[in-house]
């Protein structure tokens, strides 16, 4: 099962074969999909692996996540700004030690594999070695990862600050070392407007001018206190997004996490610049940030991908992230002035946001996110009957769409039976950090 178009606008957004086959070439790319009988009979020399009763779909794409925050998921009691000071900054301090960073990178990538996430757009820390550690670990798995060194030169503890000059030089060296090195891609990563001076955002804009095909990745309009603070720090700006726009940071391959409190003109501006938003429901609920207006983003034509935002997000599971996204949209309807204008989030749209939709948001739909011939064969084998409750409930799920909805509601890493990268099966050994083997 995979998507070929956005379910919000297309009558036939997906392809599904009850008894289907995915043919992968020796180059790790998709050669064909279709009915199993046709594919197998016309490729008699191919090795056949039988996953009857399972669902094969493209690997999930996490459009926003912080690998250094893996060890602080579920930190109690605070909203964004206090949470950063109390938990996040002390945790990120440890990543000056590359050996430490490597250990966490291994655990992080194991969690992605376990949850069927085959690509992620990832925050490192301010330390360039944190990004080397992640890319090196991703490279041993041949995994498509987009990541960057955090740029932050104010409003955080001194041990977590760089300067405009060092952030430019360190980011540039990382771009030269990693961007398009194997499957790695680089993202220029100012943390968010409050932790960068105008001088540093100028340097971020300069990097994007010099390297137009790298990504830009930051946070935007997550929390009301944060938005007020941005207005104090940049008093002449016309709102939060305008700060980034004025430094040339909004364009294709620019990804803004959250966008919970965007104004209408800001949605219009994001669409106009072809920027994307990462919708991070578990994080927005956990930190009490607010409810992202997916329907409005869609109306304005803004690209959206689904993000976990671990460690403010509470799960690495794309399925559980869809589960919470559905509930956020339910609350939108409950609080709408005119509830009749609000539609529930369909299962098709939810899976789209974690696969082809995210790939489009990341300008990677010619490489990942669907089983288009020639795409990289990153895929997962899902067991819709992985738990007793799933099995029990699935008996009443008749259509593929029903099954997908039950799976996102009840499923998690237990339902992800196998994860493949470029046609190679990955295995993760439970209970060991870095206990990772190729099959
Ligand atoms: N805004 C700035 N930094 C962060 C972070 O680490 N997590 C989240 N959720 N928002 C941020
Ligand atoms: Fe985040």
UniProtKB/TrEMBL annotation:
Recorded coiled-coil stretches: none
UniProt cross-references to CDD domains, sorted A to Z: GDEase
Domain of life: Bacteria
GO BP annotations listed: guanine catabolic process
One Pfam family, short name: Amidohydro_1
Catalyzed reactions: guanine + H2O + H(+) = xanthine + NH4(+)
Domain Amidohydrolase-related: from-to ranges: 56-424
Protein family according to the UniProt entry: Belongs to the metallo-dependent hydrolases superfamily. ATZ/TRZ family.
Protein name per Swiss-Prot or TrEMBL: Guanine deaminase
């Amino acid at each position: 099962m995979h998507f070929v178009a956005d379910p919000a606008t297309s009558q036939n957004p997906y392809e599904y074969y009850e008894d289907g086959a995915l043919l992968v070439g020796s180059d790790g790319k998709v050669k064909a999909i279709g009915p199993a009988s046709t594919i197998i009979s016309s490729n008699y020399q191919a090795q056949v692996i039988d996953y009857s009763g399972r669902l094969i779909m493209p690997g999930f794409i996490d459009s926003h996540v912080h690998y250094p925050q893996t060890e602080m998921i579920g930190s109690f009691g605070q909203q964004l700004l206090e949470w950063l000071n109390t938990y996040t900054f002390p945790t990120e301090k440890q990543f000056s030690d590359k050996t430490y960073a490597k250990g966490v990178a291994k655990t992080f990538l194991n969690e992605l594999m376990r949850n069927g996430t085959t690509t992620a757009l990832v925050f490192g820390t301010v330390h360039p070695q944190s990004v080397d550690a992640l890319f090196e670990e991703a490279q041993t798995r041949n995994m498509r990862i987009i990541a960057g060194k955090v740029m932050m030169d104010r409003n955080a503890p001194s041990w977590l600050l760089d300067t405009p000059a060092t952030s430019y030089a360190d980011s540039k060296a990382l771009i030269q070392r990693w961007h398009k090195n194997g499957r790695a891609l680089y993202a220029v990563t100012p943390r968010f407007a409050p932790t960068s001076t105008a001088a540093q955002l100028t340097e971020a804009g300069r990097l994007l001018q010099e390297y137009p095909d790298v990504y830009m990745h930051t946070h935007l309009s997550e929390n009301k206190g944060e938005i007020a603070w941005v207005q104090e720090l940049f008093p002449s700006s016309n709102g939060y997004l305008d700060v980034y726009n004025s430094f040339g940071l909004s364009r294709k391959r620019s990804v803004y996490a959250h966008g919970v409190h965007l104004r209408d003109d800001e949605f219009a501006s994001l669409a106009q610049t072809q920027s994307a938003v990462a919708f991070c429901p578990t994080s927005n609920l956990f930190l009490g940030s607010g409810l992202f207006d997916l329907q409005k983003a869609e109306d304005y034509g803004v690209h959206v991908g689904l993000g976990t935002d671990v460690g403010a997000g509470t799960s690495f599971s794309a399925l559980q992230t869809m589960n919470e996204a559905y509930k956020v949209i339910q609350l939108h309807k409950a609080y709408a002035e005119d509830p009749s204008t609000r539609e529930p989030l369909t299962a098709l749209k939810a899976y789209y946001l974690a696969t082809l939709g995210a790939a489009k948001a990341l300008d990677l739909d010619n490489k990942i996110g669907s089983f288009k011939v020639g795409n990289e064969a990153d895929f997962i084998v899902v067991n819709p009957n992985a738990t007793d409750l799933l099995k029990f409930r699935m008996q009443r799920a008749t259509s593929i769409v029903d099954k997908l909805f039950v799976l996102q509601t009840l499923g998690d890493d237990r339902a992800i039976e196998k994860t493949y990268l470029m046609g190679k099966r990955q295995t993760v050994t439970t209970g060991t950090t870095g206990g990772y083997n190729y099959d």
